[in-house]
Amino acid sequence: MENSNSDHKAKLLEIRDLYKAFPLSSGLLEQLQFKKGRLVRNRESVKAINGVSLDIYPGDALCVVGESGCGKSTIARVVTGLLRPTSGSIVFDNERIDHLPPKQQLPYRRRMQMIFQNPYASLNPRMTVRQTLEEPVRFHNPGIANGAVKEKVEEVMASVGVDPGWSNRFPHEFSGGQRQRISIARALTVDPEVIVADEPISALDVSIQAQVLNLLMEAREERSLTYLFITHDLSVVEHFGSRVAVMYLGAICELADTATLFGTPRHPYTQALLSAIPRLKLDRPAHIKLKGEIPTPIDLPKGCLFQTRCLYADERCRQERPDLKKLNSGARVACHGVEENRIE
Ligand code: SF4
Asked: By residue range, what is the domain housing residue 89?
């Protein structure tokens, strides 16, 4: 069952009816078009997020999964305040935070830290590890004693498996895996409650991805962390997630607890994604090859966003966008075919 008690639990983070569009910069002349004999200005935009609502509960490891360009990284950036939403809201611990001025967002930013995909780009090459880790502690705890800062940095370095004796080294002296450990340490130094991790292992060598993933899982246990985990890798989701949201073209098509989603995927897109995971078992479902074009996020189709690639699309699908509806399993699925029992 998808988070069976979730309806009654206090939410830590609520994403409400979120939209994010990026205007395309083009000249006025390019924007002008004739429509039905009238000159109109057509301002185009990339519609990256199209009506996403998600509740995240304390202790969740909610994975947002989908192909590149589906809007999952944009969600991470809007939730952490790096981007403002076009509309909708972000509520953290019962407080709406997306429209607060930057100064008033600070306490919430401390409680919600982000880990980026690329540890090569996210660490300042001119700062030693000690400076990198001390900076957020001092920033979020003005007046903190030097001894307390040193103690915190050493505790966190040890907990992520980086020798505190290396704290005077620079990022280029470390491997990719160690740099990502330092990025994780930087997030942990301010004792956050939520970690928003945007593809945190995909830039690492395959041989060390599992180590970093295990480190994130240990930190979740030891520090009672809640995760919003963005990934394109379903095998990571199966290992790490307590719940999964599957995204397509900026909208959620299926939301379920991990076991339900992997055991009985219902949305045709989820079924196709899961059928592509290599499995050793012989009874795995045949690989579903998606046909058709992915529509451009500049010009989204009316109706279901998946209709151009769906084997089950009918006239209703072409006219009416499906809402997420709760099934008996507890999963939520946005599909007319599932609702009408046309799809198993
Ligand atoms: Fe396919 Fe229609 Fe379901 Fe969309 S709503 S996934 S087009 S069956």
From this structure: 13-339
